[in-house]
Each structure stands twice: as C-alpha cells, then as structure tokens.
Amino acid sequence: MIMWPDRKRFAVTLSFDLDAETAWDSSSLDGRRLTLLSMGAYGRRVAVPRILELLARHDIRAQFYIPARVAEIDPNVVRGIADAGHGIGCHGYFHERTDEQTPQQNLQILKDSKAVLERTIGREVHHYRAPVWEITPDVIDGLVDLGFHSDSSLMGDDRPYLVGGAPGQLLELPVSWALDDWEQFAYSAEPAVGGVIENPDKVFDLWRSEVDGMRAYGGHFTLTMHPQLIGRPARLLMLERLIEYIKGFDDAWWCTPDDVHAQWRNGALDLPLHPY
Ligand SMILES: [Zn+2]
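A: This is the predicted complex of the input protein with zinc ion.
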C-alpha cells in the first residue's frame, strides 16, 4: 500500500479533458457539421463556467487537459481555468492520436502545444494526457526529454507509478475506462460514437463503488470527465453528489498532478517502476 500524505487512506483527482470542438472536428468533416461542433462548443461555453463554480464552492483544485487548438479558439476560457487555480496539462494540438503520427510529428506536437498553452496562461505546463489515452513509447521519451512531470494515459496500475526507466523517469497517473464519462455519456449517430446514454444515477453508483474500492485498497481515484458531457445539468448534480460522498470520508487526499509530483520529488511517496 502507498503511504499517502497526512496518513490519508486513498487519493482523489478530478480531471477534465476540455476537447471542445477538437473532439469532433477533423479534416474529413470540413467544418460544415455545425451541430456536431456545437456539442464541443457547449463544453467550453456553458459547461466550464458551471464546473468552475462547482469546484470553487467545494474548494477543490482539479486538473484540466486541453488541446492547444482550444486555447486558440477560446483563450479566455483557458485563462479562466488557470486563474481559478486549477492545473493545466497538454492534450495534443488538434487532439490527434499519437499512434497515427511519426515520432518526429509527435515531438513537434508536444513542443508546439506546450508553447501555445504556456503563452496563453503565462505559466509553465508540466503535465500531459494523450488524446484518447493512446500513447506511444516515443511520446514518453519526448515527455522525459522536454522535462514534463507526469503523464496520465496508461492503465497499468491503480496507484501512481514511474515509467520510462533510468535515467529518465516519468510519473504516471493511471486512468481507467470505468472512470471516464465518455464511456457513459458520449453519443453521436454519425460518426457512430458511444451507445446507450446512461442514467446519471447508474453512473453515480458505478463511481461510488469505485471510490469504495480505491479506499479499501489505498488506490488513486482519478476521474476523467469531458465538460461537454459531464456539464449537462443532470450530470453536474450527480457529480456534486459524488463530491459530497467522497467528502464524507476524512481520509481522502484530494490532489492534482502537481501535488503528487511534489510529494514524489520530496521522497514522501514510494512508487513502483513499471517499464511501460
Ligand atoms: Zn480528449
């Protein structure tokens, strides 16, 4: 079992992937599918302000992973998230899959997207999540070379671990399909995305049981959400119920990737090393 800071029993991170229009836009769509794109616009335009209000009311710092293109479309929303004290991480430029790029393209995307986000918010960006959680070995090498502090795309544990090996080691904050709102709520007829749009009560039960499991085993409950999905009114009410459920435990360590990285660098977290 990991010894979490302050003798806490398990860790909790709320993360939001602000894909906005990049979740739907691609060269084949040619910018003409306005209804599809508007689902993404809803995420940054309507959902983010509500999410920021909810997080502020509960005094929670969260992590937002943002494609660089979103910072170009709507720099003010990205600045608003950063100014509210939340962590910002890279998430591709146009939300491109890393396994569909060459290593050279992946490295350029990392450099360019980091630069765009840093220019937008006026502070350094050290954390990364691969679009659709699809990460390649060359991207991990690139993250180490560029001085990133963490990735959050792999599923090889339910506690933080180290990837990459000596001399370059990267902190990995693992994710899970069970803890992703995309799997529950995403839907589009064409292109065919998702299946059943789940009832928020069912999703609450799923995520509550995951909280109980992580607490029993001392794991890290990292929830991945997309503002365009979780930001619908009924789902935000469900998320607030979940926050209140977790807050009912006094042994949860609420943290961001910055917090985990700082504890690890201080020697306060003894983390396993998995080659990949
Ligand atoms: Zn994404």
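The radius of gyration is 18 Å. The chain has ten helices and nine strands.
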